[in-house]
Design goal:
Elements (H helix, E strand, L loop, with lengths): L2 E3 H8 L3 H9 L6 E3 L2 E5 H16 L4 E5 L8 H12 L5 E5 L5 H5 L11 H6 L9 E2 L7 E4 L8 H5 L8 H7 L7 E5 L6 H9 L2 E7 L4 H15 L10 E7 L3 H14 L8 E2 L3 H7 L4 H4 L4 H15 L1
Parallel strand pairs: 4-8, 4-9, 5-7, 5-8, 9-10, 10-11
Antiparallel strand pairs: 1-3, 2-3, 6-7
Helix pairs in contact: 1-2, 4-14, 8-9
Bound molecules: adenosine-5'-triphosphate (ATP) and magnesium ion.
């Protein structure tokens, strides 16, 4: 047996020391004591992380990042509605990955009163499951990982760490088998927070609002995805979701332009503008439960079906 320190093991397995510690905590790795230091067996590291790489090629958990660097396009509305609909039939982890804490609020929690958040997982090495909030039913299978303004400090606090862009993926590795879906609500930026979500993702949904600037913004996102594919090579092309559509000429021509340019990568069901969306946010209740018969809630039901079938 050849014993390695935690940091030597992390280098060998190409993961962070947090991941090695999480594996030890959850009894997936044996820990040995030598001269008051925690050590692990080199052979065990190779077999555990070698197998994990193989498993990553055929993931069973679908990790869906909802991303667009443009603000106010419908990311949070989409993430909350999809998580709520999918959690009726699947176990879902909804991750608020935005310092604005809008997803946390939409599920009825005050971001400013959360002391265990995604930030604690990134910066304080808190095991991810210790930041989970189990949302009371309905729906029956929904867990929230909340965020607040602390997260805005992330880049500064983790600067210089090795494997920076893989921190969320590593944290999820320890719990993903408990969830069929992980839905990540990204901030309106392409910074380290979004990069972590894109690296952890197995799929990406890009909500696009019906403004003339939206399609131009997609170009930058596509360039970022090219970069992300260097560390997440299996990431498929993003699915585009037309949001807040209207029966106006401008809205219809923008939607048509998206369908011409991106073809089957655009969801068949667009999400129309509806007054129930802001009222669901104000009521701190997911739209599919707040106004299930509204045309926007019905659209999100259909979008969820497209997600389930594809
Ligand atoms: N289909 C819709 N109909 C009407 N209003 C909508 C719809 N979708 C979103 N909105 C409203 O638009 C605003 C922005 O939506 P949302 O917060 O989901 O966007 P976002 O992309 O997450 O924003 P940010 O970039 O700030 O995170 C909110 O006030 C929301 O209520
Ligand atoms: Mg948002």
């Amino acid at each position: 047996m050849e014993l390695l320190t935690i940091s030597e093991a992390a280098k060998l397995a190409d993961v962070t020391t947090t991941t090695i510690r999480n594996y030890i905590r959850s009894d997936k790795l044996t820990v040995y004591e030598k001269a008051n230091r925690h050590m692990v067996d080199r052979g065990e590291i190779l077999s555990v992380f070698g197998l994990k790489r193989l498993a990553a090629v055929t993931p069973t958990t679908r990790v869906i990042a909802i991303a667009n660097q443009k603000g106010g396009v419908g990311k949070t509305t989409t993430a909350v509605a999809l998580a709520a609909v999918l959690a009726r039939s699947s176990s879902v982890l909804a991750i608020d990955s935005d310092p604005q804490g809008n997803m946390t609020q939409a599920f009825g929690y005050d971001p400013d009163h959360q002391d265990r958040t995604l930030y604690s997982v990134y910066v304080d090495d808190l095991p991810i499951s210790q930041a989970f909030i189990k949302i009371p039913p309905p729906p029956p299978n929904l867990t929230l990982l909340p965020s607040n303004l602390d997260l805005a400090d992330l880049s500064r606090r983790v600067a210089g760490r090795v494997g920076l862009e893989g921190l969320l993926r590593n944290a999820l590795d320890t719990v993903s088998e408990n969830f069929q879906f992980v839905i990540i609500d990204c901030p309106p930026s392409l910074d380290m927070i979004t990069i972590n979500a894109l690296v952890a993702a197995t799929e990406i949904i890009v909500p696009v609002d019906m403004s003339v600037f939206s399609v131009r913004g997609m170009v930058k996102l596509m360039a970022t995805l090219q970069e992300v594919r260097k560390v997440n090579p299996l990431l498929p092309p993003p699915k585009i979701l037309p949001c807040r559509t209207e029966k106006t000429t401008v809205s219809q021509s923008i939607e048509e332009g998206l369908r011409n340019k991106f073809g089957s990568s655009v969801f068949r069901t667009p999400v129309p503008r509806g007054k129930d969306v802001p009222s669901a946010h104000a009521a701190k209740s997911p739209l599919p439960f707040h106004a299930p018969r509204s045309k926007t809630a019905q659209a999100y039901e259909a979008v969820a079906q497209e997600v389930l079938s594809g």
